[in-house]
């Protein structure tokens, strides 16, 4: 079954960056591409207690948006389908994932000052559904990645069903894969070795050569991960999305939040168990 990239599409810089990157990646993977436009993201349908005609009226008012997105799609190298929804709801995300699965959602990382961006809400909703996410900084070049860096700790993990479907991505691209472990309490070779063992045991790198392991001693995990990205010149950073590190804090206090805030490269969030 072909893979599908679902890019959150719009007309501002973060959305355009996500679409450009998704286009380049889809072409390299021979994947399908969907441009998705939503006005809001919520766990509860705002039209739930209203007549369905209100939702239809809102969609009718967006006819110009659909036309503009189709023109965007026509300029891409990968044939793209346009999807429009008033709200990104859990049921909408599930429907998209089922119709286009296995699916990877691609979102542009908004600027810090973009308080009106719906991306944080979209990320939180999609994270709750355990869907793999790729967040793309606006300055990231739309080039096929040649080096992936997996940030791992020493704790064993298993890929979720959704992440399992995207495991072949690495082998299809033929990219180099490195594993980085950050220690907050000085050099710890045993923890580094355990981190590599956890990645290999998960099956994430199945069929690929044994990856190079890099250890970093840094009191702040986020700083150590960003230093690893810089030193290795990785094109994509892979973060293991354990539920306890998210909750409602994705863009606020977690290590993931700090990495996303400062990363110069796209970040692939893989849900793990």
TrEMBL record:
Domain UspA as annotated: residue spans: 224-270
Lineage: Bacteria, Pseudomonadati, Bacteroidota, Cytophagia, Cytophagales
Organism, as annotated: Hymenobacter saemangeumensis
Gene3D superfamilies: HUPs
InterPro entries: Rossmann-like_a/b/a_fold, UspA
Descriptive protein name: UspA domain-containing protein
Coiled coil: none
């Amino acid at each position: 079954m072909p893979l599908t990239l679902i890019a959150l599409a719009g007309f501002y810089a973060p959305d355009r960056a996500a679409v450009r990157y998704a286009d380049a990646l889809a072409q390299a993977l021979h994947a399908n591409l969907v441009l998705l436009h939503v006005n809001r993201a919520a766990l509860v349908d705002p039209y739930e207690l209203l007549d369905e005609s209100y939702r239809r009226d809102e969609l009718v008012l967006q006819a110009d948006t659909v036309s503009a997105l189709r023109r965007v799609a026509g300029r891409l190298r990968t044939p793209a389908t346009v999807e429009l929804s008033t709200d990104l709801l859990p049921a909408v995300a599930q429907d998209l994932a089922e119709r286009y699965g296995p699916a990877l959602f691609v979102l542009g990382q908004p600027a810090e000052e973009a308080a009106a961006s719906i991306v944080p809400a979209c990320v939180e909703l999609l994270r709750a559904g355990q869907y793999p996410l790729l967040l793309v900084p606006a300055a990231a070049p739309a080039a096929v990645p040649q080096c992936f860096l997996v940030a791992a700790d020493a704790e064993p993990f298993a890929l979720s069903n959704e992440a399992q479907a995207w495991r072949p991505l690495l082998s299809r691209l033929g990219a180099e894969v490195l594993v980085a472990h950050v220690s907050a309490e000085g050099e710890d070779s045993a923890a580094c070795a355990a981190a590599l063992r956890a990645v290999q045991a998960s099956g994430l790198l199945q069929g690929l050569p044994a990856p190079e392991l890099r250890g970093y001693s840094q009191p702040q995990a986020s700083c150590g991960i960003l230093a690893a990205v810089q030193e290795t010149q990785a094109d994509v950073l892979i973060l293991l999305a354990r539920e306890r590190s998210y909750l409602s804090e994705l863009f606020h206090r977690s290590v993931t939040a700090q990495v996303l805030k400062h990363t110069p490269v796209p970040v692939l969030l893989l849900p793990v168990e």
